[in-house]
Amino acid sequence: MMNNNTNKCAHAMCDCTVGNNQVYCSDHCKDSKDQDIVEIRCDCGHPGCA
Q: What is the tens place of the pLDDT at every residue in 26-38?
């Protein structure tokens, strides 16, 4: 049985979805919380954000 529950990536500018046990879709989004910059768009590299 597959688990289809998904959530939005925690990075504010990212539109990617993540699984139940994930918070961020990529290292880029995870690392963004430690950076003191504001992104206009997400650069995670996934098709929905590119």
A: 999 999 888 877 7
Give the torsion sign (CA, 21, 23, 25, 27): negative
Q: How many residues does the chain have?
A: 50
Q: List the structure tokens of 31.
A: 């690392």
State the DSSP code for 17: E
Q: What is the C-alpha separation between 14 and 25, in angstroms, rounded?
A: 9
- Residue pair 16/34 in contact by the 8 Å Cβ criterion: no
**Residue 35 tokens, joined:** 């950076």
Per-residue b or e along 6-23, where b marks 16 or more CB atoms closer than 10 Å to that residue's CB: eeebebeebebebeeeee
